[in-house]
């Protein structure tokens, strides 16, 4: 392990990324779709000589540049900050393998921001034709940013056989294009482009809903109906593209959907299934709501109704991104790096030499800051203290990326009712990682020597069953058994 861990109490580091990413995706997809919406709407207004449309579009352009140029850019920086802390190993891999891809994307992004500023501030200053050209320059650069980012995002699910064959040899960068145009690249690009188009309509409904229906009834009716049409391509083509995408996903990852469906009552791994269900339900609700509330009753479509559509779009987007992330389990980079940052090729060496021995950050010679000295009626001796410290380091290095003690995916609930022997049996199952293991499809193997795994079992038993406070500041429930 070449990088330190990041302990975020209660919600875990993964949800820090998730919350920022969902917010960013909602805006970044609008930045792409809205980039096409504005010049197309402006061209229509110029063809028809509609000055009222141009006035409304200028207001929409102001809303667009503030939301995308300020909040979109800030949340993008936030994602880099969060992934660098939560998943430094995988972030390093992406940077090293796609450094020129990132550079190309940043060039498009700079041109995109510049074009957006020129488009808005040159509204009444540039000739109409020049202004429209600037709008199309922005649209092209925004979509090209998506084209680049999509290759890197899909690589994390399906790196491709060529890149995986070179992984660990130092020649990975030579397979840049094979990794970039990976098996899920094109279906994902089409899906995201369709979502961008629908987001353009969703956000356009917000500004159109604020038009006074008494002063300008025709304008409001036309803009709301025209904006609502932007949702149609997505709802018509997304189901087809979704099956195309699933057909490109490895069978092992598609099996997670089947696992979630077959164990829906037990809750073994239903997150991805439930999230996919939410996407379908919210998408259908958006279509029905927009048709009855906006298309058929456009003049009474107010801001509150528009925000309802935006909220439903947020739920659909959040669920879709969550499903995409969960499909990668147990990997963060498919068939290469597990979600806790351990590379697949390192498992055997860590089991042989030790996990803690190969980490520059998880050192066992650092004494714990605050192991509670009055556990279950007697003091903890130095030997037990050192053993619990090693167990805590194992937990931080291999479990903390996905679990907390008493927050999101809590160990307190997952291991509830298990004594030391049962906890050790569970850890042994994770360590052996046999083909018939019920956890193999969505949890990384537990690596380390037998002594390290025993230490982890002692640590989990101590914090869950003996009210021991650790360096992380977690305090478990009252003691149950003797240590």
From TrEMBL:
Q: Which GO terms describe its biological process?
A: aerobic electron transport chain
Q: Where are the transmembrane segments?
A: 15-40, 61-83, 103-121, 133-157, 189-209, 230-247, 275-295, 302-320
UniProt xrefs under InterPro entries: Cyt-d_ubiquinol_oxidase_su_1, Cyt_c-like_dom, Cyt_c-like_dom_sf
Q: What membrane topology does this protein have? A: Multi-pass membrane protein
Predominant place of localization: membrane
- Give Gene Ontology CC terms: cytochrome complex; plasma membrane
Could you tell me the keywords of this UniProt record? Answer: Cell membrane, Electron transport, Heme, Iron, Membrane, Metal-binding, Transmembrane, Transmembrane helix, Transport
User: What is stated as this protein's family in its record?
Assistant: Belongs to the cytochrome ubiquinol oxidase subunit 1 family.
For this entry, the protein name equals Cytochrome bd-type quinol oxidase, subunit 1
């Amino acid at each position: 392990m070449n990088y330190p861990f990041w302990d975020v109490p209660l919600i875990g580091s993964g949800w820090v990324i998730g919350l920022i990413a969902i917010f960013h995706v909602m805006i970044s997809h609008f930045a792409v779709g809205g980039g096409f919406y504005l010049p197309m709407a402006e061209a229509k207004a110029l063809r028809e000589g509609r000055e009222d449309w141009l006035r409304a579009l200028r207001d929409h352009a102001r809303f667009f540049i503030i939301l995308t140029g300020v909040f979109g850019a800030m949340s993008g920086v936030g994602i880099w900050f969060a992934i660098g802390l939560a998943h430094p190993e995988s972030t390093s891999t992406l940077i090293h393998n796609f450094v020129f891809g990132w550079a190309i994307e940043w060039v498009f992004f700079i041109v995109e921001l510049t074009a957006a500023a020129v488009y808005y501030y040159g509204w009444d200053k540039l000739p109409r034709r020049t202004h429209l050209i600037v709008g199309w320059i922005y649209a092209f650069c925004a979509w090209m940013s998506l084209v680049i980012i999509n290759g890197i995002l899909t690589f994390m699910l399906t790196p491709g056989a060529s890149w995986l064959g070179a992984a660990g040899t130092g020649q990975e960068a030579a397979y840049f294009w094979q990794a970039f145009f990976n098996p899920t690249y094109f279906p994902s690009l089409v899906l995201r482009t369709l979502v961008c188009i629908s987001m353009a309509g969703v956000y356009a409904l917000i500004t159109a809903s604020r038009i006074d229906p008494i002063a300008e009834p025709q304008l409001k009716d036309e803009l709301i109906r025209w904006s609502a049409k932007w949702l149609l391509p997505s709802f018509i083509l997304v189901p087809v593209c979704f099956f195309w995408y699933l057909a490109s996903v490895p069978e092992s990852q598609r099996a997670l959907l089947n696992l979630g469906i077959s164990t829906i009552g037990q809750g073994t791994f239903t997150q991805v299934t439930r999230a996919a269900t939410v996407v379908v339900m919210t998408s259908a609700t958006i279509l029905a709501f927009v048709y009855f509330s906006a298309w058929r009753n456009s003049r009474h479509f107010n801001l509150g109704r528009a925000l309802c559509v935006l909220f439903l779009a947020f739920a659909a987007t959040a669920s879709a991104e969550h499903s995409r992330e969960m499909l990668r389990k147990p990997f963060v980079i498919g068939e290469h790096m597990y979600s806790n940052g351990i590379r697949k090729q390192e498992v055997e060496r860590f089991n042989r030499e030790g996990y803690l021995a190969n980490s520059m950050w998880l050192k066992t010679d650092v004494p714990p800051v605050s192991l509670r000295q009055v556990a279950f009626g007697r003091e903890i001796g130095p030997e037990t203290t050192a053993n619990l410290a090693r167990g805590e380091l194992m937990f931080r290095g291999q479990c903390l990326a996905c679990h907390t003690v008493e927050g999101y995916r809590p160990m307190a609930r997952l291991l509830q009712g298990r004594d030391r022997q049962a906890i050790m049996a569970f850890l042994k199952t994770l360590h052996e990682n046999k083909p018939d293991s019920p956890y193999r499809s969505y949890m990384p193997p537990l690596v380390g020597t037998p002594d390290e795994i025993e230490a982890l079992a002692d640590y989990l038993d101590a914090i869950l069953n003996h009210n021991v406070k650790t360096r992380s500041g977690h305090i478990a429930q009252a003691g149950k058994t003797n240590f």
